[in-house]
Design brief:
1 helix; alpha+beta; 124 residues
Length: 124
């Protein structure tokens, strides 16, 4: 009986499974004691088919506000992009990262999944 190749195969499979990276779904909140400066002016480029423009915003890096330039994000069908923004909570400010959310992108009260024209420009 050739048990050695079988044991070796099981060991290799176990090691291979352990090397697969695990993903975490924990949200990280960024708090800062000072309000972000006023937004900088950025010229919005002409629209690009299949992309959404994300305007620049103030981020935090090494305990300082740092400007992140605007950029293009590839559009996702059935989702709308919520831009990064700051909210004041007591004496601290919290940065909410930009994210894609399922929803009603043209704000007509019909979820994108059930809307015949989910990106109707006449309803935005």
């Amino acid at each position: 009986m050739k048990l050695k190749p079988l044991v070796l195969g099981v060991c290799m499979a176990t090691l291979g499974a352990m090397s697969v990276p695990m993903t975490a779904s924990a949200a990280v909140a960024v708090y800062f004691d000072a309000a972000p400066p006023p937004a900088r002016y950025e010229a919005v480029p002409p629209p690009r088919h299949g992309y959404v423009w994300v305007p620049g915003y103030w981020n935090v890096h090494h305990k300082k506000h740092v400007w992140q330039k605007g950029h293009w994000e590839r559009a996702r069908a059935g989702y709308r992009y919520v831009e990064p923004h700051w909210t004041e909570e007591g004496n601290r400010w919290q940065l909410h990262a930009g994210q894609w959310q399922r929803g009603d992108s043209d704000h007509d009260g019909v979820a994108n999944a059930y809307d015949r024209a989910p990106n109707n420009p006449l309803r935005q």
